[in-house]
Write a structure and sequence with these properties.
It is a single chain. With 782 residues, the chain is α+β, with helices and mostly antiparallel strands. 41% of the residues lie in helices and 13% in strands. The chain is built from 16 helices and 13 strands. It has helices at residues 3-20, 57-60, 81-90, 110-115, 122-127, 143-147, 249-317, 323-358, 383-393, 395-416, 454-460, 479-546, 552-586, 590-593, 605-620, 711-716; strands at residues 75-79, 153-158, 166-172, 184-199, 205-216, 229-242, 366-370, 380-381, 421-434, 463-473, 656-657, 693-697, 771-773. Strands 2, 3, 4, 5, 6, 9 and 10 form a 7-stranded antiparallel beta sheet that branches. Strands 1-7 form a two-stranded parallel ribbon. A two-stranded antiparallel ribbon has the order 8-11. Helix 7 packs antiparallel against helix 8 (323-358), helix 7 (249-317) packs antiparallel against helix 10 and helix 10 runs antiparallel to helix 12.
């Protein structure tokens, strides 16, 4: 090639390089069709799982929540506490608690909230767990899996190397021209080993084994072997018995007992979760009652402030009151109105929490209203009785005692490892060999005759073997075993120390709950007297103000104190009932207090039939007394869930007492304590007159003030149902009919309750779109 041609080729290559550039290229494929649907440009991506899970209708069909601005609902749902608990237990596959509700404002995932909750499946899951079979509580699993350690084990494997059932050898050998050992080795080898092993509770192991082998060969067929192939079958019986480590029913049954303790702990945790759910329901139910009462109190204060504002407004128009007084009265009215709105919001939130605990939709068109009033009877607990009951019935203490018992068993298992391994045993074997394995009929031929069978030779008992087994081993120093015993002892000491601390903590918490019962009752008495005095003060100051002898600020301050006293009374009353439930919670009788018992669900009828058959079989069997090696007592029997009901028998004092009223001496009789009244309802404004407007609806239908519409308005619309009990009903006596401030409380009758609400039809509720105007009206009909 000429130099000119070479330069042209060089320039052409440079041009091609300049046009293509220096970048990597994909290879070219002749069969490529351009379909890159399987191309992935990322290693990870958030995707939806291919799982179809049916959602609850309470989730998918829940209605829009009720709000202060939109309080529409279809009906009032009057529910008792017993109904709430019943519905909650029926809807609680996952046992809920208030800790499972993510607080507003916290970015907490739902998985951690609900995923860690107890479910009705947990005891069964624990009972069916596998475990490792080791004598440790955390690895014990369930009872059925632990009992599998004593199940007979059947195995069938090839008797050749690596479990081969048949192998063929065909290879040359390094041998000379020897007529007895051919150069080419041609051999068929096969066999199978079948065994049945049964461990026993005292550590023994019985094994029944049959091994059958076949061999065909060509290396000595010309002078040494009578047959070029043969069958060999053996029947072997073996017994192994540990004498030191691993001997006895106690140490061998520890994993089963630990598994049973695991199930007991799971049941105790389930009991605690149900108890916590019941306490949350009861407290939330009482909180909802308090929300209704607080709303009622806020409405009363708002209506009273509205009437006062009307009076001050009229006096201001007449020049009697300064503008400062009118502004102060107006501020008081809107302050109480804001209190009504806050109370309504709290009512909605509390009702939603109760719905969550009951497993209901957040909103279904109904508004839950408690119909069970808090008890006003004074409850007295016997401290010695409830203290003992707490130490006996508390699920947490019972759970810790199960752990202590498990640690004691772990120490026994650890100490057993300090013994040397000394095992003895015996073996007996029958051997049969023949040209064939088995024939339909016995032919009387013995090995090595042609046509002999290995099974006939085996059953003839011509060849029998025996052996004695001895095995001894021990570590020098036992350092690992001693460390295991020390670790088990320390774990037991830790559990006992924690049990002591839990008992101390339980008594402290019971003491606080016991003190709260008395404290909240006394506070309720005090706030009741305060409420009574505030009612009288409001009546007196109102009368003086109407007569021009007092200023409006005293009227407004009296109204505020009355509202505070009423709210404080209902708060103390609800806290008193919560404290009673807290005492039952602490002493382990809350489920019994709510008539709840935990029981196993029904099994299929076949299960009861099989259990009866096993019981009859065990009754007809021979009882083996293992003596001192059998497991010690680990349980004192089932827990009496109705323990409190037995306290009324002779010899026991009831832990919860309602003292009977004691007569008051004639010379010390006092006048009944005046009962507070809610005061007259605000008057309905007649149409056509002017006055200050409240700025829109006085309140939505849910908590509208009680007003009387004109006759035409009454006939134009049907009365709406008031979601609250009578907003102006008088307070209950609370057992203080004969009390004066500073006097000790007498015993309370169980019949003391809040007076029933008046007729709803007598007090129509203001509709949602009503605009209240303040006017002076002479109509005082109620």
């Amino acid at each position: 090639m000429s130099r000119q041609t070479n330069s042209r080729v060089a320039w052409l290559m440079l041009a091609l390089i300049s046009f293509t550039g220096c970048h990597p290229t994909q290879p070219f494929y002749l069969q490529s069709d351009g379909d890159l649907s399987h191309y992935l440009d990322k290693a990870m991506e958030i995707e939806f799982p291919d799982v179809h899970a049916e959602s609850l209708q309470d989730t998918t069909q829940s209605l829009s929540p009720m709000t202060v601005s939109n309080p529409d609902f279809q009906e009032i749902w009057d529910v008792s506490l017993e109904e709430c608990v019943t519905i909650a237990l029926q809807n609680s596959k996952t046992v809920r608690n208030l800790g499972g509700v993510t607080p507003f404002g916290f970015a907490d995932a739902l998985v951690e909230r609900t995923g860690g909750s107890t479910t009705v499946f947990d005891p069964a899951i624990q009972a069916s767990s596998i475990g490792s079979g080791r004598p440790a509580l955390e690895q014990a699993g369930g009872v059925e899996a632990a009992l599998a350690a004593f199940d007979a084990q059947f195995s069938m494997v090839g008797s050749g190397g690596a479990g081969t059932i048949w192998s063929r050898v065909d290879r040359p050998r390094n041998a000379g021209n020897n007529p007895f050992f051919p150069v080419a080795q041609d051999q068929d080898i096969g066999g199978i080993r079948t065994s049945l092993t049964k461990p026993t509770a005292n550590g023994s192991r019985f094994t029944l084994t049959n091994q059958t082998d076949y061999e065909r060969f060509n290396n000595d067929t010309r002078g040494f072997a009578a047959l070029n192939s043969d069958w060999t079958t053996t029947l072997e019986v073996r017994w192994d018995q540990p004498l030191l480590r691993g001997r006895g029913t106690m140490v061998n049954r520890i994993p089963i007992v630990l598994a049973r303790i695991n199930e007991d702990i799971s049941l105790t945790q389930f009991e605690s979760s149900v108890r916590n759910l019941v306490l949350d329901i009861e407290n939330t139910y009482l909180d909802l009652h308090r929300a209704y009462r607080n709303l009622e109190t806020a409405k009363t204060g708002r209506d009273s402030a509205q009437v006062t504002w009307k009076i001050v407004y009229e006096k201001w128009n007449e020049g009697v009151e300064p503008v400062q007084a009118e502004a102060q009265a107006r501020e008081q009215y809107f302050n109480f109105r804001a209190g009504v709105e806050r109370s309504l919001q709290e009512l909605y939130n509390t009702e939603t929490r109760l719905r969550w605990l009951m497993g209901l939709a957040a909103t279904d068109g109904r508004l839950i209203r408690p119909i069970d009033e808090p008890t006003m009877a004074r409850v007295a607990f016997d401290w010695s009785a409830i203290r003992t009951e707490t130490l006996v019935r508390s699920p947490e203490l019972r759970q810790k005692k199960w752990v202590v018992k498990a640690r004691e068993l772990e120490i026994i298992a650890a100490k057993n490892n300090l013994l040397p391994q000394l095992d003895v045993g015996a073996l007996y074997r029958w051997v049969g060999k023949g040209d064939e394995l088995i024939n339909a009929n016995r032919n009387g031929l013995n090995y090595p005759q042609q046509g002999s069978t290995a099974v006939e030779e085996l059953t003839g008992g011509n060849y029998q073997e025996a052996a004695l087994i001895f095995n001894f081993a021990m570590p020098v120093g036992f350092r690992r075993e001693m460390a295991g015993v020390r670790n088990a002892q320390l774990r037991l000491a830790r559990e006992k120390a924690q049990l002591e601390d839990q008992e101390l903590n339980a008594i402290h918490l019971l003491s606080t709950a016991y003190r709260n019962v008395d404290s909240f009752y006394v506070q309720a008495e005090t706030h009741f007297n305060r409420w009574s005095a505030a009612e009288k003060e409001v009546e007196s100051v109102n009368a003086l103000y109407r007569g021009g002898k007092q200023t409006v600020d005293l009227v407004l301050e009296a109204q505020r104190r009355r509202a505070d006293a009423q709210i404080s009374y209902y708060n103390a009353l609800v806290d008193y009932n919560k404290a009673i439930a807290e005492v039952h919670f602490r002493k382990g009788s809350l489920l019994e207090y709510n008539n709840i018992e935990l029981a196993e669900g029904n099994w299929p009828q076949k299960a009861y039939w099989d259990a009866l058959g096993l019981a009859r079989q065990r009754d007809a069997s021979y009882y083996l007394n293992y003596g001192w090696t059998r497991p010690d007592v680990v349980s004192q029997g089932p827990v009496d869930q109705g323990m409190g009901r037995g306290m009324a028998v002779e010899g026991y004092a009831p832990t919860e007492l309602i003292p009977a009223p004691e007569p008051t001496p004639a010379d010390e009789q006092t006048a009944p304590l005046p009962m507070p009244d809610a005061g007259p309802a605000p008057k309905s404004p007649p149409a056509g007159e002017l006055g200050p407007v409240t700025g829109g609806p006085a309140m939505p239908a849910l908590n509208a003030p009680i007003v009387h519409a004109t006759a035409a308005a009454r006939s134009a619309r049907p009365p709406l149902e008031n979601p609250l009990r009578n907003g102006s009903q008088p307070a209950g006596t609370f057992g203080m009919d004969s009390l004066r401030p500073g006097m000790p409380a007498q015993a309370v009758s169980s019949t003391n309750r809040l007076p029933s609400a008046g007729s709803e039809t007598a007090m129509p509720v203001q509709p949602a779109g009503y605009t209240a105007q303040i006017h002076d009206d002479a109509d005082t009909s109620r």
